[in-house]
Amino acid sequence: MIALPTDRRTSPPTRQHAPTALLYGGGLVAVLAVVAASLLVGSRALDPATVWQALWSAGNAEAHAIVVGQRLPRTLLGLVGGGALALAGAMIQGHTRNPLADPGLLGVTAGSSLAVVTAIAVFGLTTPAGYLWFAFAGAAAGTAIVTAIATAAGRRRDASPASLVLAGAAVSAFLSAATGVVLLLDSSALDLYRFWTVGSLAGGRSLSVLTPVLPFVVAGAVVALAQSRVLDVLALGDDVARSLGRRMVPTRIAGLAAVTLLVGSATSLVGSLGFIGLIAPHAVRWFTGSGYRLLLPMSLISGAVVTVFADIIGRLVVMPAELPVGVVLGVVGGPAFLVIIARMRRSRS
Predict the structure, then answer these.
(1) Residue 339 covered by a domain
(2) Centroid of chain to Cα 40
(3) How far, in Å, CA of 26 to CA of 24, rounded?
(4) Comparing 278 with 15, which gets the higher pLDDT?
(5) How many CA atoms lie within 13 A of 245 on its CB side?
(6) What is the reported pLDDT for 87?
(7) CB atoms < 10 A from the CB of 70, how many?
(8) pLDDT tens for residues 27-47?
(9) Does residue 22 belong to any structural domain of this protein?
(10) What's the CA gap between 5 and 342, in Å, rounded?
(11) Under a CB-based contact definition with an 8 Å cutoff, are residues 138 and 111 in contact?
């Protein structure tokens, strides 16, 4: 991935971050809180004692089926998928030095989704284990195409980050249109793909769908977290990074590999969730400051929490029906995106 530096005058001021122990402690409490709420909330009301018993015993068959068979898998899917997308968003923002970058805006998610639709419609693959590699290939292709177009469009060495965002929007629109064409040519794939349109944690999937995907999420997260020091150096500019002995090509390749693993895995699990890769890193910057040593792991935690919380909201607002988590994130993410842009304009002025 090739960096497109921003004007350093627009960089946010350094903030004094909260104590590290407090951040991780608060993150752990938030994760436990949303997990507990996710297991409790649904169209069928269950008290905490019943939920606890259902987790460890199948004595109450109905409660066990609801908690272990439905609510626990979707909770874990939300934690893994949301956390992976948020971490990928923070990685993209760091490598491009573009605060508006996220997997959805840069065409990564759209590329992964198109590849998965192709796998479903053309090859008849209907499980995450089947279309996982298609999701990876689509994520990598989307990233490469957007980066190439943005690089060609930015003729100056210090091209504006707007070129990357515009290229991502154009490529995402094209890939989304291509996805629609594939679905029109094979309408039988529409039902299988429906949850991908906006992203969803529902669908009665069991914990077995995590088995083939989780190792790739872990691998992507390890590579991403290992780049925290590198991203702090890249924030100073490529020339400074080179002068400090950083080899840019291997660094970009490692970043691209991490983003591909994270987005491809998340898309294969939860579909196309927009804005989570943008919202989570910006939210935690208020507490962590701009250093990536804390920003990356806290983005991972924040993305997981926000995704599960959005899923809980989706279950409540139209009960007994549900809103897909992608719809809830879109309703929240749109205004949040405008707020981020307004803050950037104020800092620039």
Answers:
(1) yes
(2) 25
(3) 5
(4) 278
(5) 1
(6) 95
(7) 18
(8) 999 999 999 999 999 888 788
(9) no
(10) 20
(11) yes
Element (H, E) at 194: helix 190-198
Contact 290, 17 (CB under 8 A): no
d(CA 147, CA 151): 6
The CATH number for 133's domain is 1.10.3470.10
pLDDT of 204: 61
CA 140, CA 6: separation in Å to the nearest integer? 24
Joined tokens for residue 46: 């269950």
CA distance 38 to 232: 36
Full domain range(s) for residue 97: 28-348
Query: Cα separation of 252 and 246, whole Å?
Result: 11
Could you give the 3-state DSSP secondary structure of residue 160?
coil
Phi-psi region of 125 (alpha: psi -120 to 50; beta: other; left: phi over 0): beta
> Residue 69 gets which letter from DSSP?
I
Candidates 50, 152, 161; CA nearest to 100 is: 161
Nearest of 39, 173, 182 to residue 109 by alpha carbon: 173
pLDDT digits (tens, 9 = 90+) for 250-305: 887 888 889 889 988 888 888 778 788 888 898 888 888 888 889 999 999 999 99
Q: Comparing 16 with 239, which gets the higher pLDDT?
A: 239
Asked whether residue 23 is domain-assigned, the answer is: no
Q: Which two tokens stand for residue 197?
A: 């349109």
| CA distances to 292, 293, 347 from 289, in Å | 8, 10, 16
CA distances from 167 to 40, 162, 320 (A): 43, 8, 41
Total domain count, the chain? 1
Q: Whole-angstrom Cα distance, residue 274 to residue 267?
A: 11
Residue 218 included in any domain: yes
- Amino acid residing at 61: A
- What is the pLDDT at residue 16? 56
